[in-house]
Predict the structure.
Amino acid sequence: MWYKSNGKDGDIVISSRIRLARNLKEFRFCGKMTADEANAIIEKTKNALDGRKFKFINLSNMDKTDKLLMLEQHLISRELAESRLPSGVFTDKDNEISVMVNEEDHIRMQCITGGYDLDGAYEKLNALDTSLEEKLDFAFDENYGYLTKCPTNTGTGMRASVMLHLPGLAITGNINNVIAAVNKLGIAVRGLYGEGSKSAACIYQVSNQVTLGITEEETLENLKNVVDMLIEKERQVTKALYDNNPLQFKDKVGRAYATLAGAYIMTNDEFMKLIPYVRMGVNMGIIDGVDSAAINSLIIELSPAHVSKLMGASNAAQRDEKRASKLREVLGKEEK
Amino acid sequence: MWYKSNGKDGDIVISSRIRLARNLKEFRFCGKMTADEANAIIEKTKNALDGRKFKFINLSNMDKTDKLLMLEQHLISRELAESRLPSGVFTDKDNEISVMVNEEDHIRMQCITGGYDLDGAYEKLNALDTSLEEKLDFAFDENYGYLTKCPTNTGTGMRASVMLHLPGLAITGNINNVIAAVNKLGIAVRGLYGEGSKSAACIYQVSNQVTLGITEEETLENLKNVVDMLIEKERQVTKALYDNNPLQFKDKVGRAYATLAGAYIMTNDEFMKLIPYVRMGVNMGIIDGVDSAAINSLIIELSPAHVSKLMGASNAAQRDEKRASKLREVLGKEEK
């Protein structure tokens, strides 16, 4: 799983993701088509992917918790989870590449990697795109580029995004100015689960807004410039926060870590509030024995659907107990 | 030191103490006498103690912090610390027995032991009293017994007291009913530093109120009956608190312990608020690796004057830092 290893700049960058939106020329866009057409698109995509090791997950007869689980792993979008048409997702064995069928567009393929590696993710996804294009007839216009249901994706059809943990900027309140400045550069900043979601645990998704009249390479360069700046600013702000009052900083970090490692009941809200301090503590060398990848894993694996499904909790009280138990195990070094 | 070892019923009883008030017949009571008389009493007491290994500590030229230090160790009373007459205290090498001179009475001798051992403390102090009586002429009346400055001590001149940690009774609010019931039996319940002090950290001093028309043995029996009952009630209440909601109980204990072990800034108030949960956690087997004696030591050694003097902290902020540092060392098993 992408979130289980520490990538480049893993102290701040949780993951890098490229998504390409494609539509099949011979079908109407998703909003207009019938269930039969939707099934035909799934079939065509499956055939085009043949030879590659993809597993198909049919979302039409999947229960809500399982869908949430995939959402929390960023394998599917909220839109796909809520789709009423026959739809599904093809995933490779590491869940690094996934191909959603019948979300907003006929095909939305994505590659997600741990840490800061937009180029690596683009390279892998581009190879898949090229191979699919040999077998499928994508809707493409000489002037506009790839055609998409929503005009905001027309052109490259690409969204490149980086998931950043920015506790320093969030806690000091600097994040709002930073978001405003970044927006002016054509870069969007969203919460943990993409468009319309709120930021939780000081996690932000930073992505390109423009897809028309720009190449994929330019898009990546623009985004990387902004992400480089955000990484730099986050490190500066965290260091300044520490330097301003090292004891108080260590006290907040120490208490957050101790509470997470020592509690027997832990709500998702409290977890999301405390974990950013642990990240800062790890980055500033105050906390040993836990690395950034472990924190990333906790953020994913302690999300409500994960706790419900993987730890067998059927209500909020049980989830809070299981979440605390997992935290004591991982952070408190408690015997299993 | 009495508080460094685990005595009988050490899960609840911190210490047992006997105090005897005596006055020298040929001198006026403390309120009326001159500095010369006060010095003469010190001299006479010193001669009477000769042959026993006592160290004399002159309080007249001792600074305030050192006095507070002895107060926090229960070696002297607040009244002696504030005395304007020449005064002092003789202590044996373990600080088990101390003889205050020119407190409210000319001589106030006490024996303090760890755990629940009123008989042992009485035996040792009675031996000292007998030996002093051979050399000093105590004010004694055939009808009233030993004469004291305040009539409430006349008779045996004895106060037997037990210091109890009663977090279960305190947290559930049952303590108020218990105190009211116990008062009717002629037993007083006071805070950590004796008369007029507030209860801190759920610690209570339970002692006899009556000294007139009663023997020392009867006094001890009465007190022991009450203490036995309090120990029993505290264990019951703590167990009921746990049984009512084990997870919530463990959560409170786990968070209190984790916060004490993980913070970098710890005020005395917060420490006093959290440590009772740790005691309950140790007693209920939720916390390993810390015993009751270690908690008793922390309660004494993290008192403000102790932290100031022994850890070299000169203001409240430094004390809060040193206190947290000591807690991380003892509870967090942090490297020194």
